[in-house]
Structures are given as C-alpha cells and as structure tokens.
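Side project, low priority. Logging it here so it doesn't get lost.
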Amino acid sequence: MALRTCTVPVTISRNDTSVTASNVSASGHLVGVSVTAGAMEDSSTYTIAIKDRYGMTVYSKSSLLPSNTTTNWADLYGGSTAVHPLDIPMVGPVSVTITASTTQGHMSVAYTAYLYYDN
C-alpha cells in the first residue's frame, strides 16, 4: 500500500461558525491528520471532523488552537502515546467539517486539512 495525501482547503466565512468540504476524494485507512488554522476571533478554538460516505464520524478532534498546526499520526492519536492508534478505515468520498467555538464576526478564517491515508 502507498501512503497518499489529500489536501482540503476550506474557509469559514465572516459571521459563520462552520464550513464543510464534501465529496473529498479519500478512501482507505486514515493514518494521519494535520490541520492548520489562521487567526480567529478572541478565545476561539475549533474542531475538525471527518465523516465517511455513510455519515459515520471516523475522526474528530476538538479544542484546537488557531494560528497553529495540529497533527495526529498513527502513533500519536489522542496524546503522546499509542493508546489509541490512528488507523481507521474510511469509505470515501469523505466530508471534512471545521467548526469554530464562536462566530467569526470580523473576518473569514482559512484552514487547510491534510488527510494521510493508505489505500
């Protein structure tokens, strides 16, 4: 199997709290997720969620900080140990949703998610 990467750029529009990219062409075993967020409203955090074609959540991570990159690899899901390895089957196409903890009233916020998967 070959490791593949899918890049998903999305933007939460001004006065919104979430955005979803649908029909993202990724299918196989999810082994890593990385997401980068721009500057957000004061005290905002965000959540990323990935759902497969059947609407099942295959990955979700909350309380992520803006102006930062968060990455979870197969041996680091949920922390710094391999208690819960990230090797999750996902049937594509998938949807990627970014949800901010507060409405982004002053500006739009760009995010880029990278899905690393074997298929």
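Brief comment: Residues 3-114 form a domain with the Jelly Rolls fold (CATH 2.60.120).
Revisit when time allows.
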